[in-house]
Amino acid sequence: MKIKKAILTGGGRATRLHPITTTINKHLLPLANKPMIFHAIEKAVEAGVEEIFINTNPGETDLENYIGDGGHWGIKIKFFEQTGGPQGIAHVVNEAKEFIGDEPFMFYLSDNIILGSIKPMFEEFESGNYDCMLALSEVPDPQRFGVPIFDENNKLIDVLEKPANPQNNFAVTGIYLYGPKLFFETFEKIEKSNRGEYEISSIHSHFLKNNKNVGYKEITGWWKDTGKINDMLIANRLLLEEMPEEEFINYGTADVDIEIMGKVHVGIGSRIAKGVVLKGPVIIGENCLLENCEIGPNTTIGPGCEIKQAKIKDSIILDNTLIDVDLDIRESLIGKNVRIIKKPTNEGGNMVIGDKTIVEI
C-alpha cells in the first residue's frame, strides 16, 4: 500500500528557543526565508503524500492562517488540536487516529530538517512489506534522542528513549512510516514514561518485542533537529548552500556603489543603496532597505527590514527589524519588529529586553 497520508507536528512551546518563540510558533520560524514547516510539507509532497494533518496548540490559529488548506501544494491539509495538554509525541499521533483511519501513514516532526529526498524511504517501505520503518542518523549526542539497539548480527532489537549510556551514536530521527492500524492498536498497550509522556520509542520497542517487521534506513546526507538556536543557524546555512543558483534572483533595485559576491536573492520592492556589500549565500526579503552595511555569508533578512552600518553574517533576521548602528553581528537570531539603534547623545541608551534574551556588547 502506498502512503498517501502524513501527520506533521505544529504544537509545543519550544522553550529552548525563547524569547523568539514566546510570540512566534516555532514551526513558522524561517529557514532560508521559508517557514520551517514548509520544508517538511515539501518533503512529504515530493514523496507522494496527498493529505496532511497538523497538530496545533489548543486555541492557536497561527499555523492554520499561515499555511491554509494545502492548495498551494496541490494537496489537502487539516489541523487538529492536541487535547489534554502535552503528553508526548506518541499521543500526538494517536490524536489523529480518526483522520488516518485504516491507512498507512508517515509521522514527521516538522522541526527536523534534512537535505535530500525521503522518497527512497517510502519506496523501500512500500516494497518491503514493513510494519514500520525508522530513519536513523549518526549524531554526537545520542542521549538526547531515541537510540536504536542492535544485536551481534546488527539486527534492530529495541529502541531506548534518551538513554544515559547509549549503546551507539545513532539516533532515531523524526521521520517514521507505519502500516495500517498497528500504531493505534499498540498505543492502547503502552504506558507513560517517567517523564509523564507517551514516548514514541515505547511504540517501536513494543513492535520489536512482538516480532513486527521494523525496518530502518540511515539518512546518509544531512539531518538536523532544530531544537536550539545554534541548530537553526546551521540548518539555515546548509539550506542556503544547497539552494540552486536559479533561485537567487535580484528583483530589487541597486545603486551603482555596491558589491555582490556569490549567490544573492533580493526580494521585490527592496533597495540596495550605497556602500552595501553582499556576500552570498544571502536572501534579502521583500521591501527592505540596505545602506552602508555588509551582509553575509549565510544570512537571511526578512521582509520590511532596514539595515544600515552593521555587518551581519551567519544570522537570521526576522520581519520589519531596524538595525542602524555600527555593530558586528554574528551567529544571531533576531526577532520581528526589533530596533537596534545608536542613541544620538552621550547619556547612555535605554533598553526594553524580554525574558531569556542574550545581549553581547
From TrEMBL:
Please tell me whether the keyword Transferase is annotated for this protein.
Answer: yes
InterPro entries, alphabetically?
A: G1P_thy_trans_l (IPR005908), GMPPB_C (IPR056729), NTP_transferase_dom (IPR005835), Nucleotide-diphossugar_trans (IPR029044)
Which molecular-function annotations from GO does this UniProt entry contain?
transferase activity
Domain (Nucleotidyl transferase) ranges? 5-241
Species this protein is from: Candidatus Magasanikbacteria bacterium CG_4_10_14_0_2_um_filter_33_14
Q: By what name is this protein known? A: Glucose-1-phosphate thymidylyltransferase
- Keywords associated with the record: Transferase
Matching entries from NCBIfam families are given as:
rmlA_long
Q: What's the short name of a Pfam family annotated to this entry?
A: GMPPB_C
The keyword Transferase is assigned to this record: yes
Mannose-1-phosphate guanyltransferase C-terminal domain location is 279-357
